[in-house]
Amino acid sequence: MYTCCFSTQINTLCSDWIEFYVEHRLGYQLNLVMEIFGDSAIYEKDSVLIEPCLLHGDLWSGNISCDENVEPLILDPACYYGYNEAEFGMSWCAGFGTSFYDSYFQVMPKQVGFHTRIGVYKLYHYLNYYNLFGSGCRSSAMSIIDDYLRILHV
């Protein structure tokens, strides 16, 4: 058994550092605070309950069309349930005008921190395109990674 002072430390090997730290360091300690002290406020501090919604997953102008009756068609879905903001991961090549975004955010308002998180959503698609089509998206992916490392002061 591993301890830090008298506190048990969970040292289960994880495939990456983030998973380990979130689950076995912060998550474990937060759960103990809840169990021992019943203090849910520290666990919920500044948190927002994010209800997952069905996302297209690859939303850009090339995946939107209309039929002969000018009814909208949404093509090539890569659906999953997630945070609605993740739909903007393809905004770098979406080809949508400001009226699209204005209308969207009237229905689903931007949450605090949106502009900080958008890079994470873009990063997925840049890495996906790098894997599919070669290094054309490498510099964009590296730029986002560098931005987050600066935020984290790493």
From TrEMBL:
Question: Which protein, by its recorded name, is this?
Answer: protein-ribulosamine 3-kinase
Enzyme Commission identifier(s)? 2.7.1.172
Q: Name one Pfam family in it.
A: Fructosamin_kin
Gene3D superfamilies the UniProt entry points to:
3.90.1200.10
Species source reads Zostera marina (Eelgrass)
Domain of life, per the record?
Eukaryota
One Gene Ontology molecular-function label: protein-ribulosamine 3-kinase activity
Instruction: Name the chemical reaction catalysed here.
Output: N(6)-D-ribulosyl-L-lysyl-[protein] + ATP = N(6)-(3-O-phospho-D-ribulosyl)-L-lysyl-[protein] + ADP + H(+)
